[in-house]
Specification:
Layout lengths: L5 H10 L13 H11 L11 E6 L2 H21 L4 H17 L2 E8 L9 H24 L2 E6 L6 H7 L6 E11 L21
Antiparallel strand pairs: 1-2, 2-4, 3-4
Helix pairs in contact: 2-5, 3-4, 3-6
């Protein structure tokens, strides 16, 4: 017997959207705890659970992170020859988005749990495992009535994020999730039909 009516679970999974605008309402400790407790039931390669979460909720911590990520963004864009106006507009937009997110969860990969340092596929599996737990957080948050979005910015500024948050040296940021109560209801972006992305091998 399925735990839930399949049609309900399918509808739930299909209704998750990336939400980028949030109400200023905080997310309680209880809700955050339930989300993270469910998230860690995600599968991981060798069950190594290489994910580590940094929870950022204070304006102060968000400001440290935003400044550090922005500094890296500025220097990357300068190196690419972007105009000063384009750089400031992008930096400003990104910083405001971070500061307005009620809850930020930095998703890190802990390199100390790596099973075989020589095998590059093992590293790949750890990255895959962290991505899966990220989705599990988004889904658990969705179950709580929260919206969320995966933001890849820290991947471009791993050291800056690590230093700003004073993370252990082995915690490598992979991305961050912005979470909060919804201030928008985005329409579903188009999907390629499943038939187009699937090939049955006979
Ligand atoms: C690995 C990954 C990185 C993403 N990075 C960003 C990002 O930096 N900024 C952003 O606004 N959305 C980001 N997204 C969200 C995607 O844009 C979104 O999932 C996609 O457009 C489909 O929309 P949906 O999640 O509402 O179904 C990312 C999603 C994934 C899985």
């Amino acid at each position: 017997m399925p735990w839930l009516a399949p049609e309900d679970l399918h509808a739930f999974l299909r209704s998750r959207r990336s939400v980028r605008r949030f109400l200023p309402e905080p997310v309680s400790d209880d809700v955050l705890q339930r989300v993270l407790e469910t998230a860690i039931y995600a599968p991981s390669a060798h069950n190594l659970q290489p994910w580590r979460f940094a929870v950022i909720r204070t304006d102060e911590a968000k400001a440290w992170l935003a400044q550090a990520l922005a500094a890296q963004m500025r220097s990357d864009m300068e190196a690419q020859g972007a105009s000063a106006e384009a750089i400031e507009a992008r930096v400003q937009r990104s910083q405001v988005r971070l500061q307005e997110a009620p809850l930020v969860v930095m998703l890190n990969l802990d390199e100390t749990v790596r099973r075989d340092a020589e095998d590059p596929h093992e590293r790949h599996m750890m990255v895959q495992s962290v991505a899966i737990v990220g989705l599990q957080i988004l889904l658990a948050a969705h179950a709580e009535g929260l919206g969320g979005v995966w933001v890849c910015w820290p991947l471009y500024a791993q050291e800056a994020a690590q230093q700003a948050l004073n993370l252990p040296p082995s915690w490598k940021p992979q991305g961050m999730l912005f979470l909060g109560y919804l201030a928008e209801a985005p329409a579903p972006p188009p999907r390629k039909p499943w038939q187009e992305v699937t090939r049955e091998i006979r």
